[in-house]
Design goal:
12 helices; 5% strand; two-stranded antiparallel sheet; globular
């Protein structure tokens, strides 16, 4: 069964709509769409099993306490763990024996997106007491921290490792403008991923990286005034380059969580997230009901190099928008 990654987060959006609205008619729909993708728990050929399962079953367990979802989460963590490569100490993102990946000459590619799957492993340790999931998550986070970032705080999209020596073979991109420039959604994945890693481990190195990457984006001279980044902050056609709302909403959600951690300047992160959300909710980016394929938000970019989802609505842009709304609401209700 092939389950598109973006489509697999749609059940999570329905869970958030139910949580935000309190409309009980949405709960059976959330369950229906969640349980329709249960087969994802057995995927071993794709790293995004964590992203797929935790956004759906993880939210279902958190919001409605459906105990049967625990088994799905744990099995998905076992499937994800099969992609852990002991020598480099990371979770391999893509297989390289087919499709366009086979043409790149990669051996063991790891993409920054992979940080988004670690939350599943942390949850599996909580549910089972099996610390092997935790160790894999920390090993991956540590090696990514060591190899995937530039001195200015920005990250590469793809690191290609040797499976025999564990050394880095290439630092590349697949979805950005070129190997050295800055793919915006990758920066958002890094901010979000290391915020989660800090929350789960208390390791301040992870917090420091999340903050460094955020400040790199915040202070970038080409960051637009409305704080919706270009799809790549080094795109040659700035300021006409396409924006990526999915990068903005993911970053906003992470910033709301950052603002509540035990760090100085938390209000700064909430304020920036609020400014993103005002822009995203404006007519420039928010679709009218019944339009835009019934997506909430317009103007995201999947992958320009692959001519895929270019200036299009994306499920994960909507998902992180709803998650950010939920986090914003919770913060402000607690004040």
């Amino acid at each position: 069964m092939i389950i598109p990654t973006g489509g697999a987060v749609f059940p999570g959006s329905v869970w958030y709509l139910y949580e935000l609205s309190g409309d009980r008619s949405l709960e059976p729909l959330a369950r229906k769409y969640t349980e329709a993708i249960e087969a994802a728990k057995n995927l071993t050929w794709h790293h995004d099993v964590g992203f797929m399962v935790y956004c759906s079953f993880g939210n279902g367990l958190r919001i409605s306490g459906i105990r049967e979802y625990e088994e799905v989460i744990v099995q998905a963590a076992r499937s994800l763990a099969t992609r852990f490569r002991e020598v480099p100490g990371i979770i391999q993102s893509w297989d390289v024996a087919h499709d366009w990946m086979s043409e790149r000459g990669w051996e063991c590619p790891v993409i920054i997106d992979n940080l988004m799957n670690l939350e599943l492993l942390f949850e599996a340790t909580r549910l089972t007491g099996d610390s092997s999931f935790y160790r894999i998550a920390v090993s991956h986070a540590d090696r990514t921290l060591q190899e995937q970032f530039r001195r200015n705080g920005s990250c590469y999209h793809v690191i290609d490792y040797s499976l025999t020596t564990g050394s880095v073979r290439n630092r590349h991109t697949a979805q950005g403008y070129s190997h050295e420039p800055v793919w915006s959604r990758g920066q958002a994945w890094a901010i979000y991923g290391y915020t989660v890693c800090y929350r789960e481990t208390g390791d301040r190195r992870y917090l420091q990286q999340a903050l460094e990457t955020f400040h790199f984006m915040k202070d970038h001279p080409d960051m637009p005034a409305d704080k919706i980044p270009y799809w790549d902050m080094s795109a040659p056609d700035i300021p006409e380059a396409l924006r990526d709302v999915s990068a903005a909403t993911c970053m906003a959600s992470a910033l709301y969580e950052l603002s509540q951690l035990d760090i100085e300047g938390g209000e700064e992160y909430k304020k920036y997230a609020d400014e993103i959300m005002v822009s995203v909710a404006s007519p420039a980016y928010r679709a009218n009901p019944g339009e835009n394929g019934n997506f909430l938000l317009k103007h995201s970019v999947g992958s320009i190099p692959h001519n895929a989802e270019v200036d299009a609505p994306l499920n994960y842009a909507d998902y992180y928008f709803l998650e950010a709304l939920k986090r914003k609401r919770d913060i402000e209700l607690a004040i």
